[in-house]
Amino acid sequence: EVQLVETGGGLVQPGRSLKLSCVASGFTFNNYWMSWTRQAPGKGLEWVASITNSGGSTYYPDSVKGRFTISRDNAQNTLYLQMNSLRSEDTATYYCTRDPWYFDYWGQGVMVTVSS
Amino acid sequence: DIQMTQSPSLLSASVGDRVTINCKASQNINKYLNWYQQKLGEAPKLLIYNTNNLQTGIPSRFSGSGSGTDYTLTISSLQPEDFGTYFCFQHNSWPLTFGSGTKLEIK
Question: Which contacts qualify for B55-62: CB closer than 8 Å, 24 or more apart?
Answer without folding.
Answer: B55/A104, B62/B35
